[in-house]
Amino acid sequence: MARKFLFPLLMAIVLGLFAIQTSMAYDANWEETQKKALESTGLKVGDVVNAENWQKVKDCLPFSVVEWVKKGEFTIKVGEFKYDHSHDKIYEDKSMLNDGKYTIGDKGQILEKGKMPTYMWGRPFPVIDMKDPQAGVKIMHNRDIDKHRVGSSWTDFDVCWISDINGLDRYIYGDDAFFYMWSRPDGKQFPNPQKVKRYEITQIKEPYDLAGSAMLYHYWMDGSPERFVQYIPALRRIKKMNVTDRSSPFFGTDFCNDDGAGYVGQPEAMEWKVLEKKIYLIPMANWLCDAPDMYEKLPGGGWKSGPAGKLEWGYLDKFKNEKYNVSWMPWFVKWIPRECWRISMKSKDPYYAYGDQEMIVDVASGAPIYKIVWDKSGAHWKTLMVNSDMAQWGENRSNTIQVFYINMDDKTHHASICNARGQRDKFYFYSYFNIPKNHPRIYKDEYISTMSR
Amino acid sequence: MRKGKRFIFTSVLIALLSIAFTGTGFCFLNLDYKVAGHVMNQTVIRDLDGFQTGVLNDTDVIQVRNELKFDLTMWPKYVIEPNLRLDKIFIRYRGAYDAIFDLVNRYNQIPNSVRGAGNSRYDLGLDDVIYENDLREAFADIAYQSSGGFFTNMRLGRQIVQWGEAGLFNVVNQVNPQDLSIVRNFQNPEDLAAPIWIGRMDISSPPFGMFNELSLQLLYIPDNRPTIFGPNYAGGVAPYGLGVPGLNVYQNDVSSDMGNPQFGMRVGASVGRIKTYFYYFDGFYNGPALNFSDIGNGNIWLDHPRYQMYGVSFNYDSPRGFILRGEGALHDTMPFTDFGDPTGRGYTGHKVYEALIGVDRSFFSTYGFPGAGGTPLSTSFELHYKHVDDWDYDRVLRNGAKENNYGATFVANTFFMHGSLLPIVALWYDFHGVLLTSLSAEYTPNGLLFFKMAISSSYGNKSASYSPIVSTINSSEVSLGIGYRF
User: Fold this and answer.
1) Has residue B160 got a pLDDT over 80?
2) Is B313 left (phi over 0), alpha (psi -120 to 50) or beta?
3) CB pairs under 8 A, 24+ apart, for B117-122?
4) What's the rounded Cα separation, in Å, for the pair B86 and B73?
5) What pLDDT sits at residue A138?
6) How far apart are CA B456 and CA B454, in angstroms?
7) How high is the pLDDT of residue B25?
8) Chain A window 319-378: which residues touch B at a Cβ cutoff of 8 Å?
9) B486 at the A interface (CB within 8 A)?
10) Omega before residue A133 within 30° of 0, cis
11) Which one is predicted more confidently, A438 or B28?
């Protein structure tokens, strides 16, 4: 009788220990972890999966991506990392000091002893309990803070409209700059009376009719809806935009404003719920499989991204004869098995354009990998796929920038791609951390109104 | 004008040279630059009696304009960015040839080379509307960033400054005049504005206390340019002339020199979700005051009296999903046509109070739109009120305005085909009984090649002479455009 009781108890304890684990990253045994993940999928490094053997990946990709493989649009080449694809140990150690320090408020915001913290260093929730109903929002807060630790970033990017028939239809090209007020790399605070969590400026440089447009966002520490203004050069004016425009298409692309890097909105704006933890194949640019992106120090201050490869998409002529291809197939990536969170998300805003959503998040790096979107009628609509850039600058290693992300509209069979590292045609996309010109003084209405004409 | 230009040129040159020799790591040869622009053709068909009396039943082609427009932007490359630096140089060129004047002979009686014959430089001749060769904008930005978080930008040169929150009304937007010699309303606003020489300084503060940002903009404007119309002479009237056949219309503009510059100031404050600006402008009325004192000789003069404007604007983004915005202004004297004017000019000056309130709201329709789900329908609604002080409407002597005037506008836009097709609907209802409508659409298959179509027509009470848009009832237009961006 006692044995009968003891066995389930032991099982429950073991399972509980698995469920409650550090959300952190650095893993001294990363090679063994990777090997086990690969074994669990039944795949081998070098395997090629396409419409002929799609069943091999049916349990380790989101259902919509499996459909693409099954239809013969995607070819999956299985790969592996040659390094620990996660944050550095110093960051983990600092983050662990935060264990138990912060809680989640009724609006999903971070609290410290019941009050809004004005500063924090390291992940606020280094230990995640899957059974915790607030585990989802904690994971997303951790992700936010992971991005903050670079201090500031300035990135070239483009967004391409891709159709199945024509390939690359058109593109916009510009800059995206962030300045983070929490978890800065030097541990120092900036004067912040308005309690801004982070600033963002997106500036469009091409094509001619949109060149000079600039968007400025203030994200607040308390998680309240952000401030969003846009400079419209044809009007020569700043126009205040509404928070509901977060789900509005970005310049008519398949992305909405919130889709940046998977999800760039406030964690507090969504209801999150962890559904499960399982092994998924995550897309990774070839050049990031062997080593992280090695940033070089700049003489004037700050860091510049290292060498990167070519962004070779399926619309290029060289892939026209590939049997299993579609215009938005990323031929320059390998697919690596990783342990991920599957989290459901739903906007608290009744006017938000998306219905239910699911986010797949890499446990170790904290980076969003996939986002599945349903419309408000419950029909599947879009699949967002993200490849984050694991950056190494000095002793620090983290992923705040993306190599690319795709938003595939499964209803209209159309996709938009954002390229942010590497080379596409005439564009070479660089990233910079902590360069002197990226300072809070530029995140102002008056500044963005003089950035162009 | 020439003195003003010289002053601006000299200032820019001295500033650039000073910065060039003091800025750390700067080299004039080390510039990034970018050239981008478009070529386009626009053909305009005018219904000469308006759609109200039959759609396209009495038409003329009035414009076949071929345009080249491009921007050259240059940025100095710094190894170490100095606090005081030359930030950018921007040049915009626009050149055009309108073939309609060679294709038809109905405009042949419009005089040529008017500007070189002792008239105002803004009295256009036939040559001025056939060809355009214009360095529209040319300015340099000199930036200074302080360690305290203040940012200062000095923009010197020919430029456009737009004030306020309003869409189709100009309540506080008084700085740049409009160039109506080749285009009509509902064109790109920056193409409608006439750039002028301005010395402009913008200072913005770091956040402090309750303020996200405080800002100050100062304008010194030695360039006194009026609203520009197409040629209007007894011999002939160009398509975008003032529309007074049988008379000569001449500009009586104020000379541009150091003796009578215009000034502008704007103070901004941003608190939470509210942004407010206060404005002061001391300048010359761009829009014309019709001076009839020389009517005996067949001439109308366009006067531009000096006035002052005190204004305010605000915007508020509600967490409930809409933007509320507004403007208010007091113009200490604005001219209105008054045939009872004892001086014989035919106009008198009056205080004018204006107020505007607007709401912007986006609606999503996940179903039913082709091309992309979740396409938003963006809408704007504005209500405008204008009060003319000490004004007694008279059907014969003072019929150009009423004491109290109300107008409303509605603008909606969306997109189809993943942003390739952009339709816009704009309506302007004047409560005196006139409705102006504009439907336009732009299609671009690849972002470079583009096609445009716009239809502008007005309907209502033709005898409402006091409506600001009544004259548009008699001339509806359809414009077709094709172009390529580079």
Assistant:
1) yes
2) beta
3) B119/B250, B119/B251, B120/B250, B120/B251, B120/B252, B120/B253, B121/B1, B122/B225, B122/B226, B122/B228, B122/B251, B122/B253
4) 13
5) 97
6) 7
7) 43
8) 349, 351, 353-355, 375-377
9) yes
10) no
11) A438
What pLDDT is attached to residue B12? Answer: 59
- Cβ contact A69:A63 at 8 Å: no
Q: Are B79 and A299 in contact (CB under 8 A)?
A: yes
Q: Which residue has the higher pLDDT, A77 or B260?
A: A77
User: Parallel, antiparallel, or unpaired for β A380-393 and A293-294?
Assistant: parallel
What pLDDT does A20 receive?
A: 57
Model-level pTM?
Answer: 0.90
Whole-number pLDDT of residue B233: 95
B 200-219: CB under 8 A from A: 202-204, 206-209, 212-213, 215, 217
As a whole number of Å, the CA-based R_g of chain B is: 24
Find the CB nearest A244 among B193, B208, B321: B321
- pLDDT band for position B470 (50/70/90)? very high
Give pLDDT, residue A9: 62
- Residue for token digits 């732009």? B442
Using the Cβ of B37 and the Cβ atoms of chain A, whether some distance falls under 8 Å is answered with yes
The pairing of strands B59-76 and B84-98 is antiparallel
Helix H or strand E encompassing B459: strand B449-460
CA of residue A102 relative to chain centroid, distance: 23
Beta bridge partners of A358: A344, A372
Within a 10 A sphere around the Cβ of B58, how many other Cβ atoms?
11
Q: Is A241 on the interface with B (CB under 8 A)?
A: yes
Residue ranges of alpha helices (H) inside B176-272 are 189-192
The answer to whether A414 contacts B202, with C-beta atoms less than 8 Å apart, is no
How far is residue B65's CA from residue B62's CA, in Å, rounded to a whole number? Answer: 9
**Residue A317 distance to chain B (closest CA, Å):** 18
Q: Which two tokens stand for residue A230?
A: 């846009």
CA distance A445 to A442: 9
Q: Tokens for B407, please give them.
A: 């107008």
Question: Cα-flanking dihedrals φ and ψ of residue B315, to 5°?
Answer: -140, 150
pLDDT of the residue at B418: 85
What pLDDT, on the 0 to 100 scale, is given for residue A13?
A: 56
For the sheet with B289-291, list strands across it.
Answer: B248-252, B299-303, B289-291
Residue B395 has pLDDT above 60, yes or no: yes
Strand residues in B225-298 grouped as ranges (E): 232-233, 236-237, 248-252, 262-271, 274-284, 289-291
Q: Nearest 5 degrees, angle CA A359-CA A363-CA A368?
A: 35
pLDDT beneath 70: ranges in chain A? 1-26, 243-244
Instruction: Check residue B5 and give its pLDDT.
Output: 55
| Mean pLDDT for chain A overall | 91
**How many whole angstroms from its chain centre is CA A451?**
27
Answer yes or no: do A191 and B149 touch at CB < 8 A.
Answer: yes
Q: What is the DSSP string of B335-364?
A: EEE-TT-TTSSSEEEEEEEEEEEEEEEEEE
- Per-residue pLDDT, A18: 46
What's residue B13's pLDDT?
A: 58
Calpha distance B431→B433 (Å, rounded): 5
Report which of A255, A232, A237, A236 is spatially closest to residue A245, judged by C-alpha positions.
A255
> For residues A261 and A241, what is the distance between their CA atoms, to the nearest angstrom?
21
| Complex-level ipTM beyond the 0.95 threshold | no
B328-366, pLDDT tens digit by residue? Answer: 999 999 999 999 999 999 999 999 999 999 999 988 755
Q: DSSP secondary structure string, A150-163?
A: T-EEEEEEEEEEEE
| Terminal Cα-to-Cα distance of chain B (whole angstroms) | 34
- Token digits for A2? 């006692």
